[in-house]
Every structure is written in structure tokens, then in C-alpha cells.
Amino acid sequence: MIPKLIIHNSVSLDGSTTGFEANLDVHYKILSSYQPDAMIVGSNTAKTGTQFFCEKIPPEEESDFRKPEIQPDDPRAYWLIADSKGILEGLMHVFRRSEYSKDVIVLVSERTPEAYINYLKERNYDFIRIGADRVNIRHALEIAKEKYGFELVVSDSGGVLNSILLEYGLVEEISLILTPEITGKNGTNLFRTLEKSGIRLELIRDEIVEKQYVHLVYRVLKE
Length: 223
Fold this sequence. Notes:
single chain, alpha/beta, Dihydrofolate Reductase, subunit A
């Protein structure tokens, strides 16, 4: 069994995740309303997102090598970051320091460089190592549910990870914030690497937010 998984994203009218300025207040207000146990993010999205946390990557401090003390009533979500290639080495403390993150759990594979595994161990990051060449997301979610008790995970990521989640039938709902902009040929399709076709959806919620955004929620119909 895996946790319930919801894809959440802000998109333009023509389905792009880039080429427009998303309203992050609306985006994260709706995301937080789900009260997820964890958010799953791809490494490329996480690396790009460092610019939202700091203009310049700060040096590590002694406290960055210790796990944070988590209070029982802490409402924040854990971050599950899939990073089998270890591209976030030297950046992980940025996410651990975030006011939006309870702590970080890294998803890696058997092919992940040992230097990166040692980097995580030295800084006391939990990690789930599953999969040969790349992370086996289904099994990683099964382990996360069993080990941490996660019941609801929200994907706040880009097209590659979200396509993988859909490809393997892991998604129960898709939550989209429709932004009144058209990006045209410079856009990046939300599910740009998805090979599976004929995925059927059922609209279960539609709501106008702040007079110009539309929040749409679809249930993914199982085959």
C-alpha cells in the first residue's frame, strides 16, 4: 500500500508550468489546505526552487549536520526529494532550513554515487535507497508509508516526476490552479514526458480563487 498521492501544480491556460509568474501565495495556500504528511519533489525542481529560498546559497553551519528537533504538533510536511544522481549535494541544507519543511527525506537508487550517500549520512539525512538505475517511486512510497506513517503525499514538482507518477498509476487526484495567461511555444507541458495515453479523469471540484484563478481538482479513474 502507498499513501494517497495528489499532484498539485499551477499552470497557464495552455497547460504550461513555465513562462508565467505563478501566484505562490495561492499555490501554497491551497497546497497547505490538504495538510499533507509529505511533499514529493524531483531534484531538478528542487534545485530550481532554491532561488525562492535565498538569493545566494549560504555556507553550511554546524547545525546543518544535525537533524532538527521536531515537535509532535508541528503541522509542516516532510519533503521527499528524489535525487538518484546526487545533483543536490551542497544544497540540501537550504531545504532543511526552510520554514515550510519539517525535514528532508531523500530518495536514491543503487546507482547513486557513494560520495553523495556519505554526504547524506554525515549530515544525518534520512534516505530511502530503492531501485536499480533510478528511484523506484512506488516502492519508495510503500516504505515511506510503513516507516513514517505517511497517509497523504502531495507532488509539488515538474513534468518529469509527475509524468512518472501518472505512468505507474500512483496518482489519485490532480489539483490544478489555472492562471489566466497563455505561454505559447515557450511553455513547458505539465506532463511532457508521459508516454501513456487515454488517462481518464473526473472533475470533482472547481472554484474561482481571488476572482482570476480557477482551482480544478480531478479524480484519476482507474482502468
